[in-house]
Queue: 2 jobs
Job 1
Amino acid sequence: MTVIGHFVDGSMRDGASGRTLPVFNPAVGASDTSVALADKVEVDGAVAAARQAWPEWSKTPPLRRARILDRFKTLLWERADELAETISAEHGKTHADALGEVTRGIEVVEFAVGAPHLLKGEFSENVGSDVDSHSIRQSLGVCAGITPFNFPAMVPLWMFPVALACGNTFVLKPSERVPSPALKLAAWLAECGLPDGVFNVVQGDRRAVDALLNHPDVRTVSFVGSTAVAESIHRTAMANGKRVQALGGAKNHAVIMPDADMDMAADALMGAAFGSAGERCMAISVAVPVTDAVADALIERLVPKIKALKIGPASDPSSEMGPLITGAHLDRVRGYVGRGEQEGARLVVDGRDFRQDRQGYENGFFMGATLLDHITPDMDVWKDEIFGPVLSVVRRRSYDEAVELIHRHSYANGTAVFTSNGDTARRFSQDIEVGMVGVNVPIPVPMAFHSFGGWKASNFGDHNMHGMEGIRFYTRMKTTTTRWPTSAANDVQFAIPTLG
Ligand code: NAD
């Protein structure tokens, strides 16, 4: 059995801990590879390589750093198909969806190539008589990234291109369920001329994460994953004096107003609820039609579309939805559907019994798309993040009731409103207490030059990912005030200096 290893100091490394975990092909439901799980010694080795590479990399002119990333960007476009295939093989998402993820990741590299402009400092002449002042943004050192299974390339790409462009070095700990894409990214960066040690990948589980969180040379921690882990990583990293951004789970609601284009809303919900089998932190998992008439009109449009959904492996280009990530997760999602039924939901379409009958994929972790109606806020299917192809309908009587429902939830990652009324749209985007808002856009993932991040239990820390927030997170500011001896006053001052 092949064992997927690490990438440290410019080369692939076998695991040395003796601990491994099987890596599944979720479409087949079987595993013929495993991943090495790093222990503390291996993590320490990767951090040491990154620490050693940092002084020279941080002093490399920003333009030269950017040119390496520019080559990397070109190479990513050329090899996007290959990367997408690697993603689909371990994650299960369709090829088109994996290509979309790669594209969104490349956009962050495109943004990072322009970092020299953003790293320009500020200069003030004559802040006092013959005294000048300037501020610069400097790198911090070794940055760590800990990423989830659902975007094996895009989420790491939210982090390291910006970190590297700012002059930091990086240690990435990808999800143990999708270990290969990160290694491809590391090898391709090296091919583009990135010096050894600047970007490293350690595979592993909680033990590797703990080693990173407790390592004194790790200066920043960027995490994306479930809320319980995000909260604990935020707490530990803060206690250890590190800068931290930790993005957590989600439960995203789409409000459908009576004046919405109902066909547009139904199409948007299909992609947003069932794309990537609902395993997206920006998936719409709750539809909130305002009035019963809107709910009925929406469900009438959704049901035939759900029944016609093409569920299959990434190897079939006509597949619209792939499998779930593991057998255990499939059982968990099916369990939520059963629980919803027990709690009083109406099961409009039940995807639990879907069976993939094409040869070779019979044991894949596939589930059919599911639609639950008459969900209420006291039900677990509303409260919890299910992270599967399950769309819940919560009927509300007015706009205010819909907004109140969204505000009642602990998660606040993304949301959307479907309406043709400009006043409603403006009011919603101003008032809603959620980090990312779509107006007739179901998955409002900000572009690379904006920043990604939710509110409340969906995000811990002060900075969002990429865009200017990313530049701020991966740099620290230094301000120098300068006076030359010819203009210096000779007297000693004991009061706080005032320059004006
Ligand atoms: P996860 O929290 O199980 O794992 C994320 C990472 O943390 C992995 O690298 C994993 O190895 C590590 N990890 C897991 N348990 C840990 C522990 N106890 N201590 C330390 N490290 C641990 O998440 P997942 O199942 O891989 O991903 C799905 C979750 O990620 C969902 O909740 C989804 O909403 C969330 N997510 C959020 C965003 C966002 O931007 N907010 C984006 C993508 C995914």
Note: Residues 146-151, 155, 173, 175-176, 205-206, 209, 224-226, 229, 247-250, 281, 385, 387, 413, 454, 458 surround nicotinamide-adenine-dinucleotide (CB under 6 Å).
Job 2
Amino acid sequence: MFNVEDIRKDFPILSRKVNGKPLVYFDNAATSQTPQQVIDVIVDYYSNYNANIHRGVHSLSQEATDKYEQARKKIQTHFNAKFSHEIIFTSGTTHSINLVANGFSSILKQDDEIIVSALEHHSNIVPWQMLCERTGAILKVIPMNQEGELVMADYDKLLSKKTKLVFVNHVSNALGTINPIETIIKKAHEAGAAILVDGAQACPHIKPDVQALDVDFYVASAHKMCGPTGVGMLYGKEEWLNKLPPYQGGGEMIAEVTFEKTTYAALPHKFEAGTPNICGGIAFGAALDYMNAVGFDVIAKYEHQLLEYATEKLLEIEGLKIYGTSLNKTSVISFNLEGIHPYDVGTILDKMGIAVRTGHHCAQPIMDYYKIPGTVRASFSFYNTKEEIDSLVSAVKKANMMLA
Ligand code: PMP
């Protein structure tokens, strides 16, 4: 049985105060909080078996290697990858995307086409622009509509034999829209293109099955799903990972090195040059254990209740506008108060202990579409409560009165 008060006891940070008020943490889409179970794993690593991996014969090194590789298997199981070597540890979503973009530099040719969506985070726009500059490929964009959804009819028109790659996020970080990735993937493949799905915002709420999706690449960051910062994953189909060249050169990723020629290590090590974030990888596995123990169905259902409640209460406030769809989305509300800059609202909320994100959320094209400088984004997690939403609503009302 899901009991939010029991869940909250797992998160030490939730009992602290900010500016003399109990912390209300509604910036979960930026970074989630960390349960004691994951903190314990981090402390255990540095207290008991901190050592470099894959290279020592000594016991500590072997222990650390075993735990790190067990974490890889946990990630494989969670995402239902066929092989554990299809899971590459990275420093996060941004690193994963750059790894793939760099790999495609040697595959794309002049006038090949890449399709991205209008709902992307900057980390899913800029690497592709850089790739186009390097290769002469052309970037095309699936437009969005007022509801913050992708215009799928236009996607059909953009696809052609020239399309080599499609990149789309599973869930928009700025609006929370859940994109129809099943259809997007199927259509990309019908056109003969590869597809990467950015799951950074989906994975805290949805458990993706990469084999059922038949996606070529899927990427995520641990820090948005109860894990630490500085670690994430790239899932790639074996055939694609074998095809792509390594991203970085260094230790760990080689089979043999001479000054004449170097041969690369097998997957996954080919893409894991240098000493990785060992503790982070192990803690990522523990975070997945934690979230799976709570259960993704339970999480999604509870967060949806929070979303519905907050949407209803916030819309009662005069002059408050919510951007994007109210239907098919995760627990994210992006809003503005008429005539008031989002930054000013965020500053007042902070004084009341409420953490929200303000600004363009690294998704400037979406803000340009709505012709706004940014929004206030409140994003809820399964450890938030209706009482906290009540605090948000009364604080927004206060901000509205003070700033109007
Ligand atoms: N894509 C999306 C949709 C995101 O929300 C984020 C993080 N805000 C990123 C990519 C980048 O993730 P990271 O900073 O962990 O690399």
Note: The longest strand covers residues 163-169.
